[in-house]
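Prompt: I keep going back and forth on a fold encoding question. Comparing notes only helps if you start from a blank page. Show me how you would write down a chain together with its backbone fold. Please set it down just below, with no commentary around it:
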Amino acid sequence: MTNGLHRVYNSGMPTAIARRTKEKSEVRELLKAAEEKMREMDTVIEQLKAAVCEAPPQPSPLDHLQEVVKATQDLRTAGGNISAERVARLYGVSLNQLATWLGRSRQAVSKTPDADSLQPALSFFEKVARLRLALRSDADFRKWLRTPQDLLDKASPLELMAKGERQVMADFVDDALTGAPA
């Protein structure tokens, strides 16, 4: 029996175990490195999202019409800034969902929902909300947001807003309100 064990031991069994242990260690190290790279990529993605949201919408001829500006006054605070809480309420989404679309944390948006840093991104939501001029109620506006539109390749306006296609939606609403061809 001792002779048989001796043969197995000398046949390279410890070398195979050592090789397997080394491979596991290398895999763990690769996994750690990959997780670190993923964290770095998440940071870069968040920075890119924030940068995209920082560009304000393109100017519209409707920006200077009192009636149009007045139609979205309820989205602004007494200080004049657009409130993320009010936008979320109007759009029928949670503040957490809106924060995600803006590339911000829920905590940051909750703490200061009318922060100056949010204004460029929230301006798109305000421009789209102008469509309420042509609708009977905020409930009708929320229905419209969730209804797929032929002119938007069967996507709903809310889907496009969530995907960051905010300028497309701001232009779409401008065109609808001014009667410009699509």
Summary: The chain has ten helices and no strands. The radius of gyration is 27 Å. Residues 13-54 form the longest helix (42 residues). Residues 56-178 form one domain.
